[in-house]
Design a protein that fits this description.
Layout lengths: L2 H5 L16 H23 L3 H27 L5 H20 L8 H22 L5 H26 L2 H17 L22 H29 L4 H22 L2 H11 L3 H11 L1 H20 L7 H26 L4 H15 L6 H28 L1
Helix pairs in contact: 2-3, 2-4, 2-8, 2-12, 3-5, 3-7, 3-8, 4-5, 5-6, 6-7, 8-9, 8-10, 8-11, 8-12, 9-12, 9-15, 10-13, 11-13, 12-13, 13-14, 13-15, 14-15
């Protein structure tokens, strides 16, 4: 029997030592999340308070989770098949409703956000369940376990959509808690127990490429925000310097993630004896602070461009330092997951950003931006030189 039929007609064919490419249907689905990331950064900028930060964090975690779960689904199912492609198109529509609801998710569009999110999560896992043939009992049982957890969380999402204020926040936090803990406990359900990580058959190169694509989405959104803001301003020496600093900082982030890390991670997960475990840790959980750091940095870039003079206020300090800090924490942990050691350059960069925070209030937003970008450039250059030296030894 052909391997494709043995796994299920809608599953990706698993060919040893062959990388499954990201399809155009998956890239089309990702377009919605360019909009979602923009909505998140603008919402954070408009509600930069402790409560607003908590709400945007919750929304970001939801956006990331619905995207990464879809990436797991399309790692198993083949988007070149018409039913799977139609599923992705339906999820794209759901993602568009989700994204447009973000700015008012804690106001009058909470139910729309909840319904879109729950429908996407439960719908695609039910599709996976139905698409998995009885001849693959472990994979089918895995789909049933995932559906059970997401159906439970959907109750809290929709209940929160009907609720208001702090009750909505609490219910949605419980829903996210259920979803985020589920892979860690391997989707344990009563009577049937937990799945084995060995059941999570993953095409590592595809998963790595999908997550790298989301990093590009976040970096692209940062460039769009910077460019759009700069275009509306009077071009003075200060705004030009702020624009250049923002671009250099974004470029440094790209270099830190892509120059060696993304490729090395892809190679490691492709060779791993337990790709499911590495995909769960490195690409499902550890990419969250990386993406969050890019989003927060985009907020800082817009603040600095609009107000480069004077002393930096708390909003500017938290975003200008917090964004790169989150990014470096995420990348050092991501690279540790497959290299087995903590990158010294990243650790020094983290300490330098923390030290900068002590006297950031006495700096202008422009100088704060320049210094944070300089730290990121030093980290990128240091890592490149150290890895090049180790390759020559």
């Amino acid at each position: 029997m052909p391997a494709d039929n043995a796994r299920g007609a809608l599953y990706r064919p698993m060919v040893p030592n062959q990388h499954s490419r990201v399809t155009y249907a998956e890239l089309f689905f990702d377009l919605v999340f360019v909009f979602a990331v923009t909505q998140l950064s603008h919402t954070l900028l408009a509600h930069f308070t402790p409560l607003g930060g908590l709400q945007v964090t919750l929304l970001f975690l939801a956006v990331w989770w619905v995207w990464v779960f879809t990436s797991w689904i399309t790692n198993w199912l083949n988007p070149e098949k018409t039913p799977v492609r139609l599923l992705l198109f339906a999820l794209t529509l759901g993602g568009l409703v989700l994204s447009t609801s973000i700015p008012k998710a804690f106001d009058d569009r909470g139910l729309w956000f909840a319904l879109a999110y729950a429908s996407m999560q439960v719908g695609k896992t039910v599709f996976l369940w139905v698409s998995t043939p009885p001849s693959q009992p472990l994979a089918r049982m895995n789909a049933i376990r995932i559906t059970s957890w997401l159906a439970l969380s959907a109750v809290f999402w929709i209940s929160g959509g009907f609720a208001t204020g702090q009750t909505r926040l609490a219910l949605w936090a419980m829903a996210l808690g259920i979803e985020y803990i589920s892979p860690a406990v391997r989707f344990w359900i009563p009577r049937y127990g937990a799945s084995s990580v060995a059941d999570w058959v993953v095409e590592g190169g595809h998963m790595a490429e999908r997550c790298a694509g989301f990093i590009i989405i976040a970096l692209g959104e940062s460039i769009v925000v910077t460019g759009a803001t700069f275009a509306e301003l009077t071009w003075t020496t200060e705004t030009v310097l702020a624009f250049v600093s923002a671009f250099v900082g974004t470029l440094a982030m790209w270099w830190i993630y892509f120059h060696k890390g993304a490729e090395a991670g892809s190679e490691q997960i492709s060779r791993s004896s337990e790709p499911g475990r590495l995909a769960r840790l490195a690409y499902t959980y550890l990419h969250m602070p990386i993406v969050a750091g890019i989003i927060v940095t985009a907020v800082a870039d817009e603040l600095v461009l609009k107000h480069p003079h004077g002393h930096s206020d708390l909003k500017t300090i938290l975003s200008a330092i917090g964004g790169p800090l989150l990014f470096l924490i995420g990348t050092i942990l991501f690279k540790h997951s497959f290299r087995g050691f903590l990158q010294l350059s990243h650790g020094v960069g983290i300490l330098a950003l923390c030290a900068l925070a002590w006297f950031a209030g006495g700096l202008s937003p422009l100088w704060l931006s320049i210094l944070t970008s300089a730290i990121m450039v030093v980290v990128a250059v240091w890592e490149s030189m150290s890895l090049r030296s180790s390759e020559h030894e």
